[in-house]
Amino acid sequence: MNSAQENFVTKVPEVTLLFWIIKIAATTLGETGGDAVSMSMNLGYLVATGIFAAIFIAAVSIQIVARRFHPIVYWGTIIATTTVGTTLADFADRSLGIGYSGGTSLLALLLLLSLVLWYRTLGTVSVESVNNSRAEIFYWVTIMFSQTLGTALGDWTADTAGLGYTGGAALFGALLALVVIAHYGTKIPKPLLFWAAFVLTRPLGAVVGDFLDKPIVSGGLALSRYSASVALLAFIAACLVLFKHRPAENGHLLRKNA
Does residue 95 belong to any structural domain of this protein? Predict the structure, then answer.
């Protein structure tokens, strides 16, 4: 990395407890918001995916051209990835007929390929190294695949595996706890643990979102998707206004030649 890159302020946030709280809220919003457009508005998965894909591309473009870290821009882009991930996963699982297991397998492969290509191209998949346009493109493509995978994985766990929404939430919460233990108690590279946690928070948000808005007979609370989405958006906005957000720096790098 040259000196210019070393002095570059990353445009992604510092990974703290607040980061993960907002991330889970954003992924839950992605589920309720995506379902609101595709189901409640009766637009269907394909049309909804087209709408959210356009928003996603616009949000990523704004994030890339920005000269410094903007919390609202960053988290707006994250929300865009969760909504397009929700409708895209539903389209693949249901409209294309490949099922939850097929969609999960396909998206897991795409996520792995994205990480491998990113690592082979730039020598690191660390969040703190996202300090140029190429790294940002890899970062957001990887996030989009992880959000889509998380939706399919959450649906597979709740429906096909028969755990239900609360069972799925308990499972992914436990897996996240194991990642936290590994973070503090093992020497597993921190970037790998970050992406593991990033992926796991998405199915957690997916099953929580479904729990909020699915019918009571299906194990949900039957809340309005619109009301749930507005409440989650208000919570995220409050977190952005009330707490200080700093860009990531001085993190753990996973390099080819470390």
Answer: yes
